[in-house]
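To make this tangible, this section ends with a sequence with its structure tokens:
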Amino acid sequence: MSKLKQDLKSEKIVSKIEQENTALKPEDAAEKSAEEALQEAAQNLTSVMEKMRIAEYVQYLNHPWKLLWTNFLIGIARGLGSTIGLAIVLALVFYIFQHIVMLNLPFISDLLTKMVYTIQENLKYFNGSTF
């Protein structure tokens, strides 16, 4: 998504520069020397490249291990975030289930009790201990 936004921003920047360049009148272009026009074009190109973050991209091309390391750290962060988020959601779900069981609703309480019993039996099996 962010790549798409960057592409759209860069297209807007390029189109803006093209509009500015086409907006010049022929008399204005004649008044400017070739050197000034070249400096202005270089300035525009530099600003576009800075906004597109070309330097960072080139740095990653020159140092592929840095790109791999960055992506590795991003993967670890995503995995850790997913694990913590899942633990929080499951804790909330089990907390709500406990309160539903305490309400002693006929069908739902029996179903949840069986689920909790099955989970405890599986924990006994994997841990080798009793509750």
Observations:
- The mean pLDDT is 78.
- Residues 119 and 125 are 10 Å apart (CA to CA).
- The helical segments are 2-22, 26-31, 34-52, 54-62, 64-103, 106-127.
